[in-house]
Structure formats: structure tokens, C-alpha cells
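#dry-run=false #mode=assembly
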Amino acid sequence: MADELDLLRAADPAPADGPHFGDGPLDHTAERHLNRLLHSPRPGRRTWSRPRLVWGLTAAAVVVAVALTVLLGGSGGAPAVAAPRPLTVRAHSAAVPLAQVARLADVAASDGSPALRQGTHVQSWSLGMSDDRPPLTLPEERVVRWRADGSHTEVVVATDPSHPGRPVLTDEGLVEDGRVLSRRTFPPMWGDGPPLSTPPHDPAKLRAYLLDLIHGDTLTTSELLDATQELLDNWTLGARESAALAELLADAKGLRPAGQVTDRLGRTGQAYVYDEGGAGGRRMLILDPATGVVLGLETTFARDDPEYGVHAGDVMDYSAWMR
Amino acid sequence: MSNDETFAAAYREHYWAVSRYVARRLDGRTGEVEEVVAEVFTVAWRRRADLPAAPLPWLYGVARNCLANAVRGYGRRRRLLDRLGNDDTAHGRHVVASPGSDRPGAWVHEALARLSPADQEVLRLTAWEELGVDEVAVVLRCGSRAAAMRLHRARRRLRAEIDRLRPPAAGALPEEHRHG
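#status=ok
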């Protein structure tokens, strides 16, 4: 089965059976380092200084079993399973250029309110795909709140605002609307790199922050949208950060104004569309034109992908951010 | 087992896997692998109380951040050397051409290099580290759903680049064998 992953596997520059770094006993240097760690007087116990890197990794991966058989054969009445339709731009609505949004956002940010807040509140719809099953859209709401001591909690709830009160599809099967899927508390953590460090509100510095966030050297429009999504999944931007982001978006090539839309939470915004070309999708960014606040980001398939049972125009994923 | 014993067991079991992870991302700078791996396990040692039952994806997550720092340092050094002038190291001439550069896989590397760093990483984790989606999510510090989506997008983009670069001789892959 020589698909693209097989081709990549065959091009592994450091295979496990290669001449270097193959599995086996530790060499002398590795043994010495382990000994140093284990037997030095408490190496690394520098609790008085802030660690340079702090890890938000959870102790174990969230085990997700896609119980599709249950979902497809389940009896739950009229579940909220329908894939959301892509947002449509209101016909004949005026399109506001991004440069104008950036200017308005800059003015709106002059009093610095609202303020930046760590954590996020996002409603998302995403397509669960499998090689051998039909695609399903899984809606959920995620709230992350940080406390003053550096700890934070994350709550994920199964809900679909477009079908209130109806059973909701999850990885675990059909559940009632509003079921808490996970509630986790994380111990205090800090870091001096994104996404734990505070995003700046100067456009050039924010650009550098986003590059760091995606571990990149360049920020193409596609990467800027990826980085925006990641930023907003970690931070609720204040007026100044939103204005800085709007300025970066205004400079992005190929992001064109499309007109007015009403998003899935009933909010009115301006849509900006970017076609990734080739096998990529179509991204639609929704902004509040008066403040530059990012309301949502939608990705739709640009062409059919029969292998996954999806068609051009189907929504791959959609995130709507709230305060 | 105490935290120290658990750490020692993870170190012995995964030292070489972490070394391969680092080597794959240092573009032939194999001399630096040992140094970065030492840094990875030093950070992991400080955080040993958090070491999960399946530590390898977690260790890869640590390595990913250590590498980002190392690469930033390398970039600074390289810029300095470039300013200093005609230095072999700065111009990469110390890297001896290996038989690998003529391998048929070279164009796959080129296709990979044309993708964004985020796309490259999710593909490497899947193809080279052989991680499942849940494990990729641990390394990338995102949800499993987001990891699956990123992988899906990255595969499509890689396929597009491969289609663009594939040498004629390698173009005979049956259509039904190509996945999105």
C-alpha cells in the first residue's frame, strides 16, 4: 500500500534498524548521563527559579474510542448528527476590506478594554473521519479557565447550539445535550514560550509569537490561520491583541473579503475567504468588523474525497470563539 | 517503583527512540543529537513526577521543545558565521554527501520540506515515530480530534506535493492505493 505515508516511512532518515541510534543497550555516554541524573545531589531541583520550559502535557493521552457502530445503530431519537452546512455570505452585502477592519480595531482598542485573558471558550464542530466508515460531525463546547496560582481547568461539554436539547454525537456514543465529556484540572504551570507566555499586542511581536507558536520560520496565510486557531484555543484576546492580529491578517496574501455572514452562534460578522489550492481546503475567517475580534474559522473541503465519503463544500471543522 | 526508578526505566527503554526522534529533525547535524537528547532527559528528570505510564509520546513532547530551542540557537550561530564570512560550517560544506542524498527517497524529503513545520511534524510523528492519533495529540498538546484533523490535512498537502515532484519512474502507484 504505497500511499504518501508509506513513501514517507521508506524515507526515514534514522530507521530503528539503521547504523546509528538503533535500539539496544545504552552506550557509555548515555549510561554516564543517567548515572549523573540519578546520583548527583538532587540535580535539577531548582524550585526557586521559574523553569524555562513547562509542560502542559497531560499525564496520559485521552483515550478516544470511536464507537461508530453504537452511533450508527443507536436509538436516540433525533440526534444532532447532521453535518453543519457551510456558512453562506449574505447576498449583496457590503464587504469590508481587512485594512479597514484593522483601522477600526485599532481605534476600538484605545482604552484597552476588554482585557486579554488566559484560557478559552470555544464551540466547535469537527468531522470525525475514518478510512472505512462514513464521516460524522462531532459538536462540543470547551471552556478553559486559568487561576491566579497558575493552575487551570478544562471542561468539555457535548452540545450543539444549532440543535438545542437534542441528543449529541460524541466519541462515546449518543449522549444528552450538555453532558460533560471531561473535566480536568491541571497543576500550576508557567512557561516563557508560546502558548503559555502572554501574547503581545504589538503586531511585529505578535507575528514573532505566532511563528514561535507554530515552530515556523515563515508565516504564510495558511500558517497564519493555523496559528490564529491555536492562539485562540489558548487565549481569549483583549482589544489590543485583537487589533494587532487584525493588522497581521490585513497583510496576509489571498485572504479576500466576501461579505456579511451570520455565524453558528447567531452573531453577525464579516467573512474573509482563503483558498489553499491543490488538495487544501477553503478557509473562512469571520471577524467582528468593528473590533477585529475573531468570531470563527471554518474549513470546508475544496473537492470530493470519496475515500472518506466527503464532498466539496462539506465542513471539515468550524470553531466559534466566545468570551 | 519510585519516581527515580520509573524514570531510569523509561530512560533505558526510550533513549534510542528519543535519539532517533532528534536525529530525524536535525538535518544531518548528527554531532548535536547527543547533546539535545541529554537536554531532553535532563528536563524529563526535573519533571519525573509527571512521567505518564506510557512515557514515549510525553518524551517526544519534551524533545520537541528542546529542539525548538536548539534550532533557534543553531540559527543564531549560523547567522553569526554568515556575517563572519567564508566559513565551511556556515555554508554547510562540512556535510559530506551521503549515498542517502541520491536515494529515491530524496524527493519525498523535498516534498515534505515544502509543507509548513506543523504539517511536517504531524506527518513525521505518524510515519517515522509510528504514533497513533492519541499519541500525536500528547506530543502536540492538542485534543485527539484536532490531531486527527491536522494529520488529515497534512496528508492531503503532502500528497499534492508528491504528485508535483514524483519522478516519472515512481509515478506508477495505483490510484486506489493513495489515501487522503
